[in-house]
Amino acid sequence: MTCFKWTVRSTAILLATSALIGCATAPAAQSSAEKEIPPEQQAYEARVAEMVKQDPLFALLTAEIASQRGDIYSAMLAYTEAAKQQNNPELAKRAVELGLGEGQLELALTAAKVWAELAPEDKQASRSIMLLQLGTNKVDEALPALRAYLAEVQKVENSNPGLGGVSPEKVALDMLTRIPDKTKAYQTGLELFGNAPDDLNIQTLLAQLANSSELHAQAVGHMENVLRISPQERFYVLTAQFMEKRDGSTDAAMKLIDAQAQLNPDWFGARLYLARNHTQLGQWEQARQRFAEMLALQPNNIPLYSSQGFVLTQLKDYKGAETHFRTYLNKTPAADRQNEVLIHATLSDMAVERKDFVSALKWLDSTPNAADNIDVQLKKSALFDKQGNAQAAKRVLNQYKAKNEDESVRLALAKSQLAESRKAPAEAATELEQALSTFPDQPDLLYERAMVAERQDDLPRVEQYLRRLIAVNPDNPHGYNALGYTWAENNIRLNEAMELIKKAVELAPNDPFILDSLGWVHYRLGEIDSAEAALKKAYGLRQDEEIGLHLLEVLIRSGKKEEARQLGNKLSVSYPNSQALKKLVQQLEEI
Length: 591
Known about the structure:
The protein has 33 helices and no strands. Helix 4 runs antiparallel to helix 5 (89-102). By secondary structure, it is mainly alpha-helical. The longest helix has 21 residues, at 139-159. It is extended and about 95 Å long. Pfam families: TPR_19, TPR_8.
């Protein structure tokens, strides 16, 4: 059976298109050195050419339908062949447009060459060839045309300084960033413009090309030349961004910008750069200072009030945070507000901190589309539960209608956790099982159902649900860890527990809780040295209470009293009300 059955009947168009799509396979991307076309591709292109020759109108209709159905390769071949046979550059242009839209740059380049041959005076055609050569790494082929184009731009600029709209360097940056081989792009920039250290435009161009080529030291070097010529704020910030990539840290970059910010109290962009970095680093006091400085410079820059509000929240300056949030909400039209739901949630949380539950509830209820927002409703339910009003908390959850699987799962988990908080594990299990009847392989539901069973000492069901979790999600370490830890905690099936936890460690070698499980099963097996090593690594990664208690018990068992005493003192500061800790400390004192 052949791929095409030619006929002049228009009713055969869709059938031919289906055959076209069923048989065509776009060629894999080739480098400029890979010139040879596979025989099967040659044969296919010959069939398309024959189709166009026998019935051009039919072929073009088929090509257009093929393009609409996603077979861009066949459509481009047909348009390009029709352009050659009919001497019609518009058809080749159509092929180029299709190729550009779908990223078929090699085919688009072929079509663009046909377009230029048929319309040699059309500058758009020749420019398309140049751009496509750059986009397919055929830089040497594109270079003559690129030089000529840049000379034209320079000529316009010389004739009307400042009125041409763009400089040759800006045009070159746009062109060269299209080259996939970024190192070649930087080298081409040097070839085109040289490396004149006192030319601002050239140095800026080379810095950007070097940065995109991941030649960050060179990028910073070019920017240092720029700063010597023109020490402007925007150039300092750009230099700092390149320094971050060069150094792998923000230390030197922030030191540079901080010094300039002190010298230039009106530099807003420098302060914005610093504020963003302080925020990302969790340096909240420094971030607060920078946002305060920016607000002093631009008091009508209303989004800054929202940013400062979140910073003040981190510093627990709730009064200041609320003032800034209210300013932002009052001065920003509803349609333009960003993070409004998060702001309301944060204001609600701050009210809870003050034990002002009425205000907390008002902030949630005044959130836009609150009744239809699951996050708001979950917080509202949790707020009622925190006040001891379990019935109201449950009513909120029951009234909400989930819109998709994700919301259904989150709702079921919330209902289960609410039931558990009321010491109703059977109800919690029922909520989860109802959800599992609809989503039987949902990992979060399976995991939580197993944990409810574990709290009920129902070990057969623990195994049932965790085995199912492992089956449906074999690359997730938590199923293996949970089942292995369950056996270790109950001091049963320890060899099996070790195999499960080793699998979890293999999948997540630096997870502190999984390493804690590994240490604990070693301890249960009497392998004290291995237990101590695993638990010390886990505790080094996360100073968690349970990990600390496990390590303390192992240190006591191994007779390392002084080390155990130091750890016990540290844990007592962090967890003064821990009954399990008090028992271990008592054991230590009795040794």
